[in-house]
Amino acid sequence: MKSPRSQVGPLGLTQPSQHPHINGFFPMAWFKRQSGELDTSGEKKVRTEGLWVKCDGCRQIIWKKDLEENLNVCPKCEKHFRIDARTRLAQLLDDNQYETFDGNLVSTDPLKFVDLKPYSKRLRRAQEDTGLKDAVINARGKVDGRTVIMSVMEYGFIGGSMGTVVGEMITRSVERAMDTNTPLIIVSASGGARMMEGVVSLMQLAKISAALARLDKAKVPYISLLTDPTTGGVTASFAMLGDLNIAEPGALIGFAGPRVIEQTIRQKLPPEFQRSEFLLEHGMLDAVLHRKQLKPYIVRALDFMTA
Fold first, then answer.
1. The model's pTM
2. What is the pLDDT of residues 206-239, one digit of tens each?
3. Which of 8, 41, 121, 215 lies at a 20 to 30 A Cα distance from 260?
């Protein structure tokens, strides 16, 4: 009598019995479907997203709130993070109170410039992202009770580049300071002249410089604050023409970039070349100041200049 545990298949091979009650064999599914809807969004939700920041200087992870309370300076290595124009105004002016001017000026795209995409689209995108018409804010406020005129550049607007609008707005700030005999402060953060406006943007260098010459003749104080980065035509004009030129630590300041210079002269540049400390050592700056020291230093400078 054959054992009921097995059966002979068509090729003479022994196969397990198909009777589930024999030898404890029960049919089993290989895959089990999980109930519930599929998440097809492709996005992972992280509760801590945006709460931490990695420092490019020391590579440490910083609690974003701690960074903001420290004026956006790394509490571990003192690296100065870039900040937007509105934050800069809030840090320098009393109680974050100020009046803005000339905010309705908009570029007309004189060359109808197109590279990877039309310049007009770049402008619209920058305006949407920053809430500004162009890369500078003109304001009047008080620094420790002293009224000042300020022009603060916004690097987030096409790299803080200087086109016709930026040139006109800064010139108007210079003229307003001269007309009212009010000290002028310009905060630079720029990649230079805006190539999408061609030679028209380069004309702004001479235009602003001529206005500053008239301001100097009128004996109205002008303080230039250079932040990371300040390069190109901005460095070649108003950024280095202050009665007092000050900068934040580690700021990149120069005309052409270090890589371009090395390729041109075919020599290796010194360490920290074009950083604010290097420029101070070589007499191109009057002071390099921690962000916490900027406002007290400006107050003392204005006391001396207006005495």
1. 0.83
2. 999 999 999 999 999 999 999 999 999 999 999 9
3. 121
User: Could you give the CA distance from residue 294 to residue 247 in angstroms, rounded to a whole number?
Assistant: 9
What residues contact 8, with CB distance under 8 A and at least 6 apart?
14, 15
In a domain, 37, yes or no: no
DSSP state of 115: S
Does residue 234 lie in a domain region? yes
**CATH number (domain holding residue 290):** 3.90.226.10
CA 184, 163, 287, 86 dihedral sign is positive
Structural domain boundaries enclosing 172: 83-305
d(CA 69, CA 208): 35
β-strands 52-54, 61-63 pairing: antiparallel
Q: How far apart are CA 113 and CA 115, in angstroms?
A: 7
Query: Collapsing DSSP states into helix, strand and coil, what is residue 6?
Result: strand
Q: Sheet with 222-230: list strands edge to edge.
A: 98-101, 136-143, 146-153, 184-190, 222-230, 244-247, 287-288
Alpha-carbon torsion angle 104, 105, 110, 113, nearest 10:
-70
Strand partners, 54: 61
In which region does residue 27 sit, left (phi positive, over 0), alpha (psi from -120 to 50) or beta (all else)? beta
Residues 97 and 208 in one domain: yes
- Asked if residues 79 and 121 have their Cβ atoms less than 8 Å apart, the reply is no
pLDDT digits (tens, 9 = 90+) for 25-82: 545 555 555 555 444 444 444 455 579 999 999 999 999 999 999 999 999 999 999 9
Give yes or no: residues 59 and 143 share one domain.
no
